[in-house]
Amino acid sequence: MDDLAVERVLRAVESLPPGSAASYGDIGRVVGASPRYVARVMSVYGSNVPWWRVPNVRGALPAPLTARALPHWNDEDMPLTDDDRIDMRCARVDPHTFAASVLDALAELASHDAEVSED
User: Fold this and answer.
1) Count of alpha carbons within 13 Å of 48, Cβ hemisphere only?
2) How far apart are CA 1 and CA 7, in angstroms?
3) How far apart are CA 24 and CA 9, in angstroms?
4) Sheet strands (E) in 42-95
5) For residue 59, which of 7, 10, 83, 88 is within the disulfide window of CB 3.0 to 4.6 Å?
Protein backbone atom coordinates (compact mmCIF):
# COMPACT_ATOMS: atom_id res chain seq x y z
CA MET A 1 0.00 0.00 0.00
CA ASP A 2 1.07 3.53 -0.74
CA ASP A 3 2.32 5.21 2.45
CA LEU A 4 0.80 8.59 1.58
CA ALA A 5 -2.59 7.09 0.75
CA VAL A 6 -2.55 5.16 4.03
CA GLU A 7 -1.68 8.32 5.96
CA ARG A 8 -4.52 10.19 4.26
CA VAL A 9 -7.02 7.56 5.42
CA LEU A 10 -5.65 7.53 8.97
CA ARG A 11 -5.73 11.33 9.21
CA ALA A 12 -9.33 11.32 8.02
CA VAL A 13 -10.25 8.83 10.76
CA GLU A 14 -8.46 10.98 13.35
CA SER A 15 -10.65 13.90 12.20
CA LEU A 16 -13.85 12.15 13.28
CA PRO A 17 -15.22 13.75 16.45
CA PRO A 18 -16.20 11.54 19.39
CA GLY A 19 -19.74 10.19 19.10
CA SER A 20 -19.69 10.49 15.31
CA ALA A 21 -19.06 7.91 12.64
CA ALA A 22 -18.15 7.73 8.97
CA SER A 23 -18.47 4.69 6.76
CA TYR A 24 -15.60 3.37 4.67
CA GLY A 25 -17.25 5.06 1.69
CA ASP A 26 -17.61 8.39 3.50
CA ILE A 27 -13.90 8.40 4.21
CA GLY A 28 -13.03 7.19 0.75
CA ARG A 29 -14.94 10.05 -0.88
CA VAL A 30 -12.97 12.62 1.10
CA VAL A 31 -9.51 11.11 0.56
CA GLY A 32 -10.00 9.79 -2.98
CA ALA A 33 -9.98 6.06 -2.22
CA SER A 34 -12.42 3.20 -2.59
CA PRO A 35 -14.37 1.90 0.41
CA ARG A 36 -12.49 -1.40 0.09
CA TYR A 37 -9.17 0.40 0.26
CA VAL A 38 -10.26 2.29 3.38
CA ALA A 39 -11.39 -1.00 4.97
CA ARG A 40 -8.06 -2.60 4.12
CA VAL A 41 -6.10 0.33 5.58
CA MET A 42 -8.19 0.13 8.74
CA SER A 43 -7.66 -3.62 9.06
CA VAL A 44 -3.88 -3.32 8.72
CA TYR A 45 -3.04 0.10 10.21
CA GLY A 46 -6.12 1.30 12.07
CA SER A 47 -5.32 0.16 15.59
CA ASN A 48 -3.81 3.53 16.62
CA VAL A 49 -6.72 5.69 15.45
CA PRO A 50 -10.36 5.69 16.62
CA TRP A 51 -11.27 2.66 14.50
CA TRP A 52 -14.57 2.17 16.34
CA ARG A 53 -15.92 5.24 14.52
CA VAL A 54 -15.52 3.62 11.09
CA PRO A 55 -18.20 1.01 10.40
CA ASN A 56 -19.58 -0.22 7.13
CA VAL A 57 -22.51 1.63 5.58
CA ARG A 58 -24.96 -0.33 7.77
CA GLY A 59 -23.15 0.82 10.94
CA ALA A 60 -21.56 -2.57 11.63
CA LEU A 61 -17.98 -3.51 12.37
CA PRO A 62 -16.49 -6.94 11.73
CA ALA A 63 -18.04 -9.27 14.33
CA PRO A 64 -14.87 -9.78 16.42
CA LEU A 65 -14.48 -6.02 16.84
CA THR A 66 -18.00 -5.20 18.01
CA ALA A 67 -17.40 -6.36 21.59
CA ARG A 68 -14.20 -4.28 21.74
CA ALA A 69 -15.99 -1.26 20.27
CA LEU A 70 -18.93 -1.25 22.69
CA PRO A 71 -17.04 0.39 25.59
CA HIS A 72 -15.79 3.13 23.24
CA TRP A 73 -19.28 3.66 21.85
CA ASN A 74 -20.73 3.86 25.36
CA ASP A 75 -18.03 6.31 26.50
CA GLU A 76 -18.79 8.55 23.50
CA ASP A 77 -22.59 8.18 23.72
CA MET A 78 -22.60 6.81 20.19
CA PRO A 79 -26.19 6.22 19.03
CA LEU A 80 -26.67 2.48 18.58
CA THR A 81 -29.32 0.20 17.16
CA ASP A 82 -30.88 -2.64 19.14
CA ASP A 83 -28.53 -5.12 17.43
CA ASP A 84 -25.30 -3.34 18.46
CA ARG A 85 -24.62 -1.37 15.33
CA ILE A 86 -24.00 2.36 15.04
CA ASP A 87 -27.20 4.15 14.10
CA MET A 88 -25.78 5.88 11.04
CA ARG A 89 -28.90 8.06 10.62
CA CYS A 90 -27.96 9.77 13.89
CA ALA A 91 -24.20 9.28 14.15
CA ARG A 92 -22.98 9.95 10.60
CA VAL A 93 -20.70 12.96 10.62
CA ASP A 94 -21.85 15.96 8.59
CA PRO A 95 -20.15 15.45 5.21
CA HIS A 96 -19.26 19.12 4.68
CA THR A 97 -17.83 19.66 8.15
CA PHE A 98 -15.95 16.36 7.92
CA ALA A 99 -14.52 17.18 4.49
CA ALA A 100 -13.29 20.56 5.76
CA SER A 101 -11.60 19.05 8.83
CA VAL A 102 -9.98 16.32 6.72
CA LEU A 103 -8.73 18.87 4.20
CA ASP A 104 -7.15 20.81 7.07
CA ALA A 105 -5.44 17.64 8.31
CA LEU A 106 -4.27 16.76 4.81
CA ALA A 107 -2.95 20.29 4.21
CA GLU A 108 -0.70 19.80 7.22
CA LEU A 109 0.45 16.52 5.70
CA ALA A 110 1.17 18.20 2.34
CA SER A 111 3.19 20.97 4.01
CA HIS A 112 5.16 18.37 5.98
CA ASP A 113 5.91 16.47 2.74
CA ALA A 114 7.12 19.69 1.12
CA GLU A 115 9.45 20.36 4.05
CA VAL A 116 10.85 16.82 3.88
CA SER A 117 11.48 17.04 0.13
CA GLU A 118 13.37 20.34 0.59
CA ASP A 119 15.83 18.70 3.02
Assistant:
1) 7
2) 10
3) 10
4) none
5) 88
